[in-house]
Amino acid sequence: MASSLSERGNKRHIEILDFLRGIAALSVVLLHYSHSAIPSIRPNALTEYFEWGRLGVQVFFVISGFVIPYSMYVSGYSLRNAGHFIMKRLARLGPPSWIAVGLMFVIYYGAIAMKGSPIEGMAWPGTDPVTVLSNLFYSFVLLDKGAYIDIYWTLEVEFQYYLLIAFLLPLILKFRNNLYVLSALLLSLVLAAYIENERVIFFENAGFFVLGILLFLYNQQLIRRDYFVYSSIVTMLLLYGSNGLPYAFAGVIAFLIIAYVRFSNSFTTFLGRISYSLYITHMFAGISSEFILKRFTGTEMGEPMKLVMLVVYTGIAIGFAAIFYQLVEKPSITLAQKFSWKRKK
Question: Are 23 and 261 in contact (CB under 8 A)?
Answer without folding.
Answer: no
